[in-house]
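User: Hey, quick favor. My workstation is busy. Could you predict this chain's structure for me?
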Amino acid sequence: MQFAPVAINGTLGLPVNFTPRDIKDGVATLVHGTGVPIADTRISMQSTRTTAGRRKVSVKVAVPIVQDVIVNGISRPTVVRTGYADLSFGFDETSSTVEREHVMLLLANWFSSPYGAAMITNLDSLY
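Assistant: No problem, here it is.
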């Protein structure tokens, strides 16, 4: 697949535009630039083969929250916290496209379910 810009719906369905940053050591990184590099939202992706011969797809997201902090009378942007997601998919070499799509869609739809939404957005526990 060609490494190219992509728009992904974010909060309230508004598109967030990501542009390719680089591919280093097999990890492709897209960023949503803010003009301040430490504040860029990053999505990194990698597809590898395990020693057992399985296909592994990893996707990581980092969303930093940056505030201006005054140190010695100088204002500078500083990361005060970061939200992270780290997803990993593993598939046997004999898996079909339909099987892989099924796993991806189940997970994507889980995030929209009452359980997934409550656990992530409200930090609720299941009991």
